[in-house]
Amino acid sequence: MLKTLLFILFLLLSNLCISQQYVDLFSINYGKSAATGYENNYQTTTITNLDADLTLPIKLNEKYAIISGLDFSNNTLQLFPDVNDNNLYLTRIKAGINITHSERWSGTYLLLPKISSDYINLSMEDFYIGGVAVLKYKKSKNLSYKFGLYASNEAFGLFISPLIGLYYMSPSSRFEMNLYLPNNADLNYSLTNKTKIGTDFVARGKSFKLTTDSVRSSYAENNSLEFSSYLQNNSLNKNVLIRIKLGLSTNSFEVYPIDQKIAFATTLFKFGDNRTQLNTNLSSSPFIKIEAIYRFDIASK
C-alpha cells in the first residue's frame, strides 16, 4: 500500500522538478531571539516566530500541473517598549499552475491572496492580493536557472520584486546550492548520507495592520534579514529533515500611521516615502531555530 501511495505521489510531482531532485511538501519552524534592544532605550524584547508551509501539486498531464497550498506565519514581539506583546499573523493561499513549455523551459504562475494583521476584528481591510510568475530553464541534469517577478499590494502600498534563481548539485551530490534571490539562499554539504551542514539566508518582506482601541490605526512593516548556519539530520525518517539553526537577524519592524503610504517599493528602493515612523528601531540579535521538513525525494523513485 505504501509503495502504491509513493508511486502515485511520484506521478503527481514528476513534472514539477527542474534539475532539483526533490519537492518540499511541508515545512514548519519555530525560532526565538536573544534579548533584542531598542534604539536609545535600555529595555529589550524577545522575538519569536512560527512559520509553516504546505504545498499540494496535482499533475493533470505531461504539460500541466495544478499547484495549491497554504502558508502561515506568526511573529510575536513588543513593537514599543512598555507595552504588551504584539502578535503579527499572516495566512496566505497558493493557487496556480505549472506549465512545461518545452524540454528545457517550464513556468510556475501563482496567485497569492493573503490576510495579514494582528487578527483583531478581522475584516476585508486585512486582505491583500499578490502573485508570482517564474520561468525555469534546465541547463543540465544538475543545473537550472530561474527568472521571475513577484508583486503584491501591502499596507504601505505596491511592492514589486524581480526574482532570479540558480540550482546546482555537484556530480558527487555532496554539495548543493539553491538560490532564489532576493528572497532566500541555501548552501549545504553532506557529511554523511544522513547529516548535512549548511548556511542560509532569508529575507522577510511583510506588512501587518495593527489595532488600537478596536480601530485600525497603524501598520507594521517587517523587512528583517536572517543569516544562519545549520545542522541537518534525517535519521528518524529519510523523508523528514530536522534542522537546528543558529543565526543573526536584523529585526526590522517599523510602525507607521495607517494613512501614510508610499508610491511603490522594490527590493532595494522605496519611491515616494515620506512616512513618519512611530516606533524606535530594534537592534540586530542572534536567534536559535528548529525546523522540520517533509521532503519527497524524486531522484530515488
Could you walk me through the main structural features you see in this protein, from its secondary elements to its overall organization?
- With 301 residues, the protein is mainly beta.
- The protein is built from 1 helix and 23 strands.
- It has one helix at 2-13, and strands spanning 22-33, 36-37, 44-45, 48-59, 64-77, 86-100, 105-111, 114-117, 127-128, 130-140, 143-154, 157-169, 175-181, 184-190, 195-203, 206-212, 215-222, 225-237, 240-249, 253-257, 264-265, 270-271, 285-297.
- The strands form 3 sheets. Strands 1-4-5-6-7-10-11-12-13-14-15-18-19-23 form a 14-stranded antiparallel beta barrel. A 3-stranded antiparallel sheet has the order 16-17-20, with no helix packed on it.
- Strand 13 (175-181) and strand 14 form a beta hairpin.
| Side-by-side strand order of the widest sheet | 1-4-5-6-7-10-11-12-13-14-15-18-19-23
- Rg calculated over all Cα atoms: 20 Å
Q: Let me know the largest β-sheet.
A: 14 strands, antiparallel, barrel
What ranges have pLDDT less than 50 throughout 5 or more consecutive residues? 1-18
Task: Calculate the mean pLDDT score and round it.
Answer: 91
**What fraction strand?**
over 45%
Structural class: mainly beta
Shape: globular
| Measured distance between first and last alpha carbons | 15 Å
Total of helices? 1
Number of strands: 23
Helix content: under 10%
> What multimeric state do the chains show?
single chain
Q: Helix-strand pattern, N to C?
A: HEEEEEEEEEEEEEEEEEEEEEEE
